[in-house]
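Thread: "does anyone have the structure for this chain?"

Original post by V.I.:
We have the sequence but no experimental structure in hand. Need at least a predicted one for the grant figures.
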Amino acid sequence: MAMDRKIEKKKGIKPKTVIVTLISVAVVALLIKMTISASVSVYKADRNKLIISNVEASLFKEYISITGTVAPLTTIFLDADEGGKVQEKLIEEGEMVKKGDIIFRMVNNDLKLQIMNAESQLAYQANELRNTIINMDQQKINNKRQLLDIDHQIVRLKRTFEQNQELYNNGNISTEEYTRSAEEYEYSVKERALRYEQMVQDSIFRENQRDQMNSSLRSMQENLRIVRQRLEDLNVKAPADGQLGSLDVEIGQKINQGQRIGQLNIIDNYKITAQVDEHYIDRVKKGLSATFERQDRLFNVKVKKIYPDVRDGKFQIDLLFGDTLPNNLRTGQTYHIKLELGQSEKAIIIPCGNFFHTTGGQWIFVLDESGKFATKRNIKIGRKNPLYYEVLEGLNPGEQVIVSGYDLFGDNNRIEFK
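Reply from O.Q.:
Generated one for you, tokens below.
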């Protein structure tokens, strides 16, 4: 009787097991996908309607864009030194003038009356001075004549005294007669000394009086000169060579003394004035460089002056040109200027876009490598210029991001492209 043979089990994975395993994996993958889909909100968008930009590693230039206006480096304001009524206008705005050119003429009848009164007072004072000088000269002559009379009398009295002295010594005249002649002689000598002292004092007084009147006369002449100069100031003249920038007068207009009537531009050199947002008031310093493009060329300017006042949220700066100026430079021209706030540095940058209004620069939609969808990613934005943001964290060069506005995306975490 033959012996039974033991049948060995076949080794390896049974097909049934493989099928069951594959089905299980598929089910698990499906469940995972369904779980993820359930937790991630998706917005479907037309890619052609979005602005997608590359993340780059490049030099970041920190600057702001401002609008500057060309102005003369030196401006002289024209104020009316004298008031009056505009009679004639000789030069119009924008015309070139030379120093001393009459711009317009005024009339002032009250001023003419003042000049007439001043001239009348001067004539009266001059006549009074002449009369006083004549009287003083006459008095001086009279004093000399009186002194001459006294000297003549002294000579006569001295001779009488000497004769009486000799007669008295010889006993020919009485003591009374001799004494009287001596007293008369001595009195005349003393009177002469007193009269001479009085004449000196009178002469000093008269000279002082003459000086005072001459000083008064010179003062009146100076006043008359000033009043006449006021009359000349009715002819408003250019104080220097330049271009008449503005002139706010018309024929027949009443101009008050000290009124601002225009300005004169000295056009031998120019500057650029610009308004800067007060946000940058601590960043803008003297000497900062700036550039603008004109006639397909790049021109350099530098901050020369910073005005302290802030008005309507802006402050003013003046910039001076470098060695080269644009051709056909004119007052009032405007340029779009890039004002550099710091040195250029290597950085990761993305273009500016409306996404920032929604995210505040805290996150952004980054495209997948497949380019079929984009997801949220937290980032950190640093500095900004008109074209680019500096990215400090969250992005790598070569990646792509959506920089257009996110208003339609809502709270969705994922953007799939149609």
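V.I.: this helps a lot. The longest helix spans residues 109-169.
O.Q.: and The chain has a mean pLDDT of 86.
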